[in-house]
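ERR on first pass: missing label on line 2. Operator R.T. fixed the label and resubmitted. Corrected input:
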Amino acid sequence: MLHKEMLEAARDGRLRVLVALLVLLVLGVGASTLQQARSHAEAQAAAQYHEQDRWLAQGEKTPHAAAHYGVYAFRPPGPLAYFDPGLDPYLGVTVWMEAHWQNEPQFPSARDSASFSRFGQLTPATVLGLLLPLLIFVFAGPAISGERERGTLRQLLAQGVSGRQLLWGKATASTLLVLVLVVPLLGVFALLSLRAENAADALLRFGLMFLMLLLFLGSMLLLALTVSAWAASSRNALGVLLGFWLLGALVAPRLAVEWAEAVAPTPDGPTFRQALNRDLDDRTALDAEIARTEAALLAEYGLDRLEDLPVSINGIRLRLADEAGYAIFDHHFGGLFDGYLAQERHFQRVGWLAPYIAWSAVSAGLAGTDLQHFRHFIDSAEAHRRMIQDMMSEDMIRNPEVDGAPYIADAALWAQVPEFEYRPPDFSEVWTFYRGSLFALLGWALAMLVALDVAGRRLRLH
Amino acid sequence: MNRHLTTLRHDGLSLLRERGTWLLFLVLLIATLLAISGGQREKERIQALQAQLVQQTEAAREAVRAQAVRLSRDGGAISQFRDPRIADVVGRRLVVENALLPPTPLTPLSAGQTGLLPAQQPVSLEPREVLLSEGELTPPRRLATGRLDASFLVIFLAPLLLIALGHGIPSWERQHGLLRRLVIHPPPLRRRDTRPHRLRLRVGRAPGHGGALGV
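pass 2 clean. output:
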C-alpha cells in the first residue's frame, strides 16, 4: 500500500507543481519576515542605545525633573518572530517611562501597513498552518472516494486488503510526504534559531513548534482520509473538507474573537483613562498619608518645622505620591491585561472546535509574539520605571533643599540608573498559558486517529 | 441566444436542485447577517464612544468652571498645576478637547480595523497629551484576526464559496460522460434545440452559476 501510494504521489504532476509553489512561498515569505524581524531588532537596539545616551546627556537638574525627562523602553521582536509574527504588528513597540505615569504602549507597526493587511499577514506560520492543510484536503480528500469512483476500491478490497490496512497505508504514505515537505523547511528556520541570543530557549521553542505543527497537520490529514472514506463521492468529500477549512480557519477565528470579547469585555480607551484619572486625582488617602508621615518625621527628629528636617520633605512627598500611584496603575493596567488574557483563554477554547485556532495560538506563544510575552515586556518596563522613580526620590530625600534652593543632581546620578535591557521569558516560564491549545491539538490528533480507525473498519467489500 | 438562455437555465436550475447549493446559500446568508449586524454594532460603538468623550469634556468643563468660581469666591490652597483659574492649566490638562472622526455611512459594510487607527485625537496645549494619545484600546487579538464584515465576505468568503460551488462541475460531467451528452444534445428544457453548442455551453455556464449565487 505504502509503495503504491508513494509511487502515485511521485507521478502526480499537480502535486509536484503545488508543492514546489508552497516551498517557494514559505521560503519567500520566510525571507521577508526574517528581514522584517532583523530590521526591527536592529532599530530597537539602536534606539535603546541612543536613548541611554540621551538620558546620560540630559545635563544638570533636580532628580525629579530628570524623572519627568523620562526614557523610552523599546520592545525587541519575539524569539521566533521571523517564523510567526503573531500579534506583534498590533502591539506597541515602545513605552515612555516618566515620573508619576505608567504610559500605554505606542506605535504598533500595523499602523504603517497598507489597509489590505487586515485580511491577514502572509508568514511561514500561516502558509504552513493555513494553506498546507488546504493542499492536504485537495490531495487526500479524494484518496478513498476517488478509488471508489474509479472502481479500484472494490478491486483492492477483493484482493484481501482490509479497510484499515488501506486507510493506514494511505495515512502513512501521506504523512511521509508531508514530512518530506515540512522537515527541510523547518530545518532552515531551526538553523536560524541557533543565532538567537538565547539559543537553547529558541531551539526548545522551535522543537515544540515542529511537534505542534506535525500534530496539527497530521490531524488534518487523518480528517481528510476519514471524510474521504465516508463520502459517497470525491466532490462531496472535497465539499465537506473545503467547508470545514472555510469555517474553521476563516470564519471561526472571527466569531471566536466576538465571543471572547462578549464573555470577557475590556474597557475602551476613553473609559479606561477616565477611570484611571479619577483614581489618580482622588488624593484624599494620599494627603492623609503625607500628613501622617510629616507628623511622624517631626516627632522623630523633635522639630517644629518641616524646613528644618535633615531630609527633603518634597522628596518624601513625591515618593509617597509615586507609591500611591503604583497601586492604582497595578489595578487599572493589571485589570486591562488580565481582561485581554482572559479573552485569549476564551479564544483558545474555541480551538477544541477549530484546530487552526489552537495552532495559531500555540504558534504565536512559541514564537514569543503573543499577549503573554507582551505583558512580560510591559511589566518589565514598568518595573524599570519604578526603579528610576525610586532612585530619583531617594536621592532627593538624602539631599534636602538648602535655604529654599533645590538640590541639583548631575550625570553621576544619571549614570547610576541601569540601562533598560529586556530579556523575553523562557518558554518554560510561560508554557502553562497555552496548555489549553496544546491539549486541543493533542485531542484532535487522538480523535482523528480513532475516527480513521472506525472508518477503516467500516470500509468493506459489501 | 436561445441556447445561452437554455444552458443558463439548465445550470441555474440544476444548481438550485442540489442540497449543497442551498447549504452554501444558508452559510452565506448567516455570514451576511452576522457581518452586517457586526458592522452596524461597530458603527454604533464608535458613535457611542465619541458621544461619551463629548459628554466627558462637557462634564470636565462644568466642574472646572464651578471650581474656579468657588476658589475665586471662597479662596483656598490649590497646586499651581491644578488651578482652574489659570487658562494654561485648563487648556493643558483639566479640559482636553478631542477632534472626532465620525464613522461613515458605509462603515457597517466595511468596519475593517476601525480600532487600529484612532477615531479621536486630543487637542491640548500639552504635547504629552497629544503625543501619548493611543486612541482606542482595541484588543490586539481583534486587530490581528479582523472582523467578519461585508468586505471580508465579498473578498474572501464569496469567491471561495463560488469556487466550491462550481469547481468540479465540467470535470465531473466529463468523468460521468454527461459533458459529451450535453454537448451533443443541449439540455432539453423546451425540447426544440438539438444542435451542438460547445462554445455556448461554456459561455452560458458562468452566468448560470453567477445567477444561482446571486439569488
